């Protein structure tokens, strides 16, 4: 119940509870006492009274005050009787001057506060990781301090606050949170490998390519290879390294590059032909969707961060040695934030049994070279040479091993299974090129040997 004149209710004791704040803006009842609306309730001020003149009046209002004076004073100044007597007791114990200012709520001790030397130690560990080219975020610093046996080891959240206060952390407010990612992972090692290549620069500005092969389940760096360009030979080399060290995988995921998996272009590349003969399923991501190979793309970033802190390599051999050293650190020493418990890729690889290797596809015996028959590879422009004449076969068969049968009146081109690909009659003397007679454009993939 609200009234317009506060003088009419001074000294009254209200026994029935009412809402704490009156919406009409007049005086209302609150917790068995009467005090002005829109003032901070006594339960919120927690015994503090901010008016200095009023605090002096509390001391002046002694024990000889008439009956009801304390209640009236508290109602006029918006404080509770408990706060009134707490301030007067403090003035009596510590002196009137002690009651003029509210006492600080700060605790006398903060057991959870980290000492300054621990903060400096954490910043030093972060600087050492950054100098070595490794990840130096709160998670990496926490794991590094834990493995070194330092005590105490701040939590990840505390380390983030320390780096932010020291202004050594890079703020990225536009970065998507981890909860927004749609993760996928194969259930066991060797269930799927990811292959990708990235460019790097040697001394003098010379460009080269680093092939990186990783396991999708454990994030293990299966193999790496440095080459001058992104070619099928380099891709075959790194895959052979991985198979020799860790066995044959069930699947091989890559992008749609010509050196890796050009199947979407109607061409069966050398790498696809090689792994398919082993029973490996060669798969690709959608064009212009690199997030399908996101694990390998993120692997490139970690590698670049490490290599940028190393001396610039002069040769492919020097760069290969640096990449091999990084693979050891990445597999056995660096805690991986994408794995449960921030374990290393090698620990994740050892924790789960490997997937059984696929069954190889039976291959027919290749045709043997005899008199009037020889084996050759289709050139990059889709041609083969016979008797000084360039015969057009098909660009889609680039790199395919074919058999040329030279009869008296014609040239037969057969694949490794003995199927006739094309037949050319011998042209007139002096002819240097003979087309296939087919319209331009791809005619669908042909499976090479």
Short overview:
The protein is α+β, with helices and mostly antiparallel strands and 449 residues long.
Task: Characterise this structure.
This protein is α+β, with helices and mostly antiparallel strands. The chain folds into four domains: 6-99, no CATH class; 116-171; 193-351, Ribonuclease H-like superfamily/Ribonuclease H (Nucleotidyltransferase, domain 5, 2-Layer Sandwich), CATH 3.30.420.10; 373-434, no CATH class. Helices cover 30% and strands 16% of the residues. It has twelve helices and 14 strands. The protein has helices at residues 42-45, 52-60, 69-77, 81-94, 116-131, 138-147, 156-165, 232-246, 270-277, 294-307, 316-332, 345-351, and strands at residues 28-30, 33-35, 193-201, 207-215, 221-227, 251-254, 281-284, 373-377, 383-386, 389-392, 401-406, 410-414, 420-425, 433-434. A five-stranded mixed β-sheet has the order 5-4-3-6-7. Strands 8-11-12-13 form a four-stranded antiparallel β-sheet, with no helix packed on it. Strands 9-10-14 form a three-stranded mixed β-sheet, with no helix packed on it. Helix 5 crosses helix 6 (138-147). The chain is elongated. The termini are far apart.
Q: What would CATH call the class of the largest domain? A: Alpha Beta
Number of helices: 12
**Mean pLDDT over all positions:** 79
The CATH homologous superfamily of the largest domain is termed: Ribonuclease H-like superfamily/Ribonuclease H
